[in-house]
Write a structure and sequence with these properties.
The chain has 454 residues and is α/β, with parallel strands linked by helices. The protein is built from 17 helices and 15 strands. The protein has 2 domains: 140 residues, Aspartate Aminotransferase, domain 1, CATH 3.90.1150.10; 276 residues, Aspartate Aminotransferase, domain 2. The protein binds pyridoxal-5'-phosphate (PLP). One of its GO terms (biological process) is gamma-aminobutyric acid metabolic process.
Length: 454
Amino acid sequence: QLSNSLAHTDVSKTLHPYTDARAHERQGPLIIDRGKGIYVYDDAGKEYIEGLAGLWSVAVGFDEPRLVAVASAQMAKLPYYHTFSHKAQEPSIRLAEKIVGMTPAPLSRVFFTSSGSEANDTMIKMVWYMNNALGRPKKKKFLARNRAYHGVTVASGSLTGLPNNHTDFDLPIIPVTHLTCPHFYRFAHTGETETEFAARLVAEAEAVILQEGPETVAAFIGEPLMAAGGVMPPPAGYWQGIAALCRKYDILLVADEVICGFGRLGAAFGCEHYDFTPDIMIVSKQLTSSYMPLAAVIFSQKVYDAIADNTAKIGTFGHGFTASGHPVATAVALENLEIIEERDLVGNAARMGRILQTRLGELSEHPLVGEVRGAGLIAGIELVSDKKTRRPFGAAGKLGAMAFVAAQNHGLIVRAIGDTIALCPPLIINEDQVHELVARLSDALDDAAQWRSA
Ligand code: PLP
C-alpha cells in the first residue's frame, strides 16, 4: 500500500538505480525529506541516523549553511562556465590548487568531471592517450580486483569487479584482468598469515603481468580500502608489494580514493593511511560532501607532460565534459574542504573511528556476527549463520537483508552488501552519536537473530 501520491508517482514514473524494480512497485520508496547533522527525516517525520552518509559521501552533515551560501553566491555571480579551449573560471582554478596541495603523493595536475565513473573513464583514456603518445600503443591493459567498485559507465564498469555489473551488461569492454579480492577472512587459505596472504596476492599479480607481457600492462587500479564491494581493508604489506611491482614493470598505480579520500580512514587519503604512493588518484563524493556532483583525476607531472607534448603536435586533448570544473560545484568543493580542515574532520574521523571500531568489535560476540572490520569511520559487519563454517543463513544476502530492514525500523540507515552491513557515517559524528549508532545497530541485530530463529 503506497501511503501517498508522491510515492505512487515515484513507482509509476521512475526506474531506480540498484533497485529491484518489481519489489519497488510493491513497497514504494522511503522518501527522505530533510536532513540535520548526521540525521535525515522521512516524509512522515521519522528520524534516521544516516549510517552511510548518503552514498558514503556527506562528510559535513546534511545541513551545512556555508555550502548553501557559497553555492547561491556563485549561482548569482557566474552560474555556469566551461573549461574547454583555454577558458577558465576562478573556483575551478582555486580548487585545483587546493587539491594538489593536499595530496600526499607528488601529483601536480587535476582534470575535473562530474562523477567518479566519468573520472575513471577519463583516467583510462588519459593512460591510453599517454601510451600512444609515448610510442607504446600495446601498453593498454588494466589490472583490477574482484569485488572492486570503480563505477558503472561502460569503461569504469569494466574495471568494477562485481559479477552483476559484468554479465548483465556484456562487460568488460576494455582489456582488464580481475585479481583475487584482498579480503583475508574470506579468501585466505587455511593456516595462512595475513602477510603470507598479501605475498600470495602480489605473486598472483606478478604472474599475470608476466603472462600478459609487461609491455601490454598499463595500469593497476585499486581502492585503498575496498568499500562498496563489502568494506574490506587490505592485508598488511599488500599495497607495498603492489606498488613495488608497478615500479618494476613500469605500470601506473591508480588509487581510487572516491570513498577513502578526504578523511574517511582517519588520514587525508587512503594511500596515506596504507603508506603507498600512487601515480594517479581519483576523488569524488566527500570532495563536495555530495552537495554538488563533482569528481577529479589527480595525476603526476610525468603523465601531464606526455599528454601535453602530444597535444602540441596534434593540437588538442580531445576529451572533456560540459560540466568539467563547473563553477558552482568547484566553489562548493573549495568551501567543503575548508570546513574539513577548520573543524579537523580528518582528526575527528580518526578519534571517532577508534571508538566506533572498538564498540563494533564488542558486537563480535553477537551470535550472527562473523567478522567486524574497517578503518577510521568505515566498517563492515559480516553476518553468518554459523561462526565456524562462516556459512550464510539460507541464500546469501538473506541475513543482510533482515538486518537492513531491522536497522531501518530502529532509525538507522545502513547498506547491506550481501550479508555485510556497511557503516560509513558523516565525518562530523560525535562520541554520543557513535554510541547511539551502535545501540541502534545492536538492537537491529537482535531483531534479525529473532527472525532467523522464528
Ligand atoms: N569509485 C569508487 C571507489 C566508488 O565507490 C564509486 C561510487 O560509489 C565510483 C568510483 C563511481 O562514482 P559515481 O557513482 O560518482 O560514478
